[in-house]
Amino acid sequence: MDFELSPEQEQLRDNVARLMRERYGFEARKGYQASPRGWSEALWRDYADMGLLGAPFAEADGGFGGGPVETMIVMEQFGKALALEPYLQTVVLCGALLKHGASEKHRAELIGAVAAGETRLSFAHAEKQSGFDLHDVGCSVVKDGGGGFVLNGEKTLVGQGDSADRLIVSARLEGARRDRHGIGLFLVDADAPGVTRRGYPTQDGQRAAEIAFADVRAAPHDVIGAPDGALPVIERAVDETVAALAAEGYATALPAVVGRGSPLTFRLWRPGEPTLPGGMGIPEPLDSAPPVEPDLLFVPLACFDRRGHRIGYGAGYYDRSLERLRSAKRIHAVGVAYGVCEVASAPYEPHDQSLDVIVTEHETIFVRER
pLDDT tens, position by position, for the chain (370 residues)? Predict the structure, then answer.
């Protein structure tokens, strides 16, 4: 099996790398981030002219005949530059929903517009209670009696949803909120009557939006695939998006105990790399692994409350680590627990460090104050 890039793929990599070097310096990025959309419309047009927006799509659908390798090449260079444009949302995530769920006619219409830079898409899927469960969809859709549909509900953390032209919205046609069956995908104009968007910056310099749908109408041709069988398409699209994010350069680090009474140190680790048993038999990376400072920290706990207070396992390693990290930069602390670990009020002392988010098997709890 040949893992070498073809000459065409090498040229794609070199062209994107050159564009990032020339147009994505530190001051330029600050300017793009401060613009009304939070990214560069001029660069988006350049991406279209270079064929980047149509690279992973079949020629029959209006693309340029590439695939996952081309996506990884582009994402790797974008990751090095910390590019802000909605490539991940429009081309990778929504593009995958279209590739695997839309009809031939839908693909030709929408992918051609995406490739030309004329249409930007965002996937409105996550809800406040859903956590990481892709099948937890409470946003409802009902048939209107004339072949169309009416949507009601709210979506959270919609990537670049405040600047999207159109939204792909997941909504439940039938079944209970956590049923796997009964979920559909609906194409909605972002400025349609009944759509309300509230945009905000995210911690990585990107933007997201909270979006509400109040009696929003979708025509029969706005349904992507079966109106009650979209979950397999969603799962496949999310898997492809995670792979693209890995190419962009997100890294994983594991904690290591330096000594009792000291903060933890964090070292880079990749799946398959060796570890050594640490305290309580917990695997730790080798001492030779490079140390890093995390931007997001997953925190174990024995119990928690909804104010973000927690009880750990008695040694105070994570409190000391969070105190040190937060003194230097903004960092998110995410507690991971079973719902049964929740208490009305967890003991809290001045030196304790609160959580920003708590993830259980049932929900994601966003702590509003610390």
Answer: 345 778 999 999 999 999 999 999 889 998 999 999 999 999 999 999 999 999 999 999 999 898 888 998 999 899 888 899 999 999 999 999 999 999 998 898 899 999 999 999 999 999 999 877 899 999 999 999 999 999 999 999 999 999 999 999 999 999 999 999 999 999 999 999 999 999 998 877 899 999 999 999 999 999 999 999 999 999 989 888 877 887 777 667 889 988 888 899 999 876 567 888 887 678 888 888 888 888 888 898 999 999 999 998 778 889 999 999 999 887 888 888 888 999 999 988 888 899 988 888 777 787 855 4
The candidate with the shortest Cα–Cα distance to 120, out of 80, 171, 168, 57, is 168
Looking at the DSSP bridge assignments, the partners of residue 357 are 334, 366
CB-count exposure of residue 132 (10 Å: 0-12, 13-18, 19+): exposed
3-state SS assignment for residue 254? strand
131 touches 360 (CB < 8 A): yes
Residues in the chain, overall count: 370
Burial class (CB in 10 A: 0-12, 13-18, 19+), 299: buried
User: CB 357: neighbour CB atoms within 10 A?
Assistant: 18
The answer to whether 11 and 50 have CB atoms below 8 angstroms apart is no
Give the start-end residues of each E strand in 140-241.
Answer: 140-143, 149-159, 166-172, 183-189, 195-201, 207-218, 223-224
- Kindly state the DSSP code that residue 5 receives in the 8-state scheme: P
The H or E element that residue 311 is part of is strand 310-311
Compute the CA torsion angle 146, 147, 148, 151 (nearest 10 deg): 90
pTM, full prediction: 0.71
- For the chain, which domains are there? 7-115 (1.10.540.10), 121-229 (2.40.110.10), 253-366 (3.40.50.10420)
CB 86 within 8 A of CB 120: yes
Rounded Cα distance between 219 and 222, Å, is 5
Token pair, residue 363, equals 């929900």
